[in-house]
Design a protein that fits this description.
This protein has 179 residues and is α+β, with helices and mostly antiparallel strands. It has one domain (35-164). It is 23% helix and 34% strand. The protein has helices at residues 8-28, 42-47, 98-111, and strands at residues 33-34, 36-40, 55-61, 71-76, 81-83, 90-96, 121-127, 130-137, 141-147, 156-163. The strands form two sheets. The protein has a six-stranded antiparallel beta sheet with strand order 2-7-8-4-3-6. It has a four-stranded mixed beta sheet with strand order 1-9-10-5, with no helix packed on it. The longest helix has 21 residues, at 8-28. The protein is globular. The termini are far apart. Residues 21-28 and 171-179 have low confidence and may be disordered.
Length: 179
């Protein structure tokens, strides 16, 4: 037998094993339901009674190739557990109103001497036709809240987000390059 030639059946066996591994990992991926959201007028909300309610609040930020991070917030009701996955820069801020979140955002932007970012876009998050909280994030962030509750357990939500800024290697906006 020539050791430089492989057995054709061993190649098929390796392919079958690789496909089986992919199917197992695919089945292990989390399942959940993407929650519905409605964008709302933040200034009108802050003037209403709903805007004066306090929520559990977490602040998250982008990281990666862009020099300056973008910040987002998730305000959620009591009795809800929120998962984010590993590695996300996250700060749990305790209970805050939407107005306090807006003030925190300005403070964080100043502390980081940030020259990028927008006013926060506020969205109400709906689960089973009831409000569970709000996201407040930069316009260049895509924030998604998933319901990953199992059975009749208390609600468990998963926060995911991504940076929508174009990574062109220059870390500058197109208008700053003279386009």
């Amino acid at each position: 037998m020539n050791p430089t030639k492989s057995n054709p059946s061993s190649g098929k066996l390796a392919a079958v094993a690789a496909i089986a591994v992919l199917m197992v990992f695919g089945a292990c991926a989390f399942t959940g339901t993407l929650l519905k959201w409605n964008q709302i007028d933040a200034s009108a909300l802050m003037k209403s009674e709903a805007g004066k309610q306090v929520f559990n609040t977490m602040r998250f930020q982008t990281f990666g190739p862009n020099a300056q991070p973008l910040f987002g917030y998730f305000l959620y009701k009591d009795g809800i557990e929120v998962e984010t996955g590993g590695g996300i820069p996250l700060a749990r801020l305790g209970k805050k109103t939407l107005e306090e979140v807006m003030a925190d955002h300005v403070s964080v932007q100043r502390a980081n001497m940030s020259t990028v970012g927008s006013n926060l876009i506020v969205r109400e998050i709906i689960r089973a036709d009831a409000l569970v909280g709000y996201t407040a994030s930069d316009i260049n962030m895509d924030v998604r809240i998933w319901d990953i509750t199992k059975g009749d357990e208390p609600p468990v939500l998963r926060l995911e987000f991504r940076d929508l800024r174009r990574d062109d290697g220059l870390n500058r906006r197109p208008q700053m390059r003279g386009f």
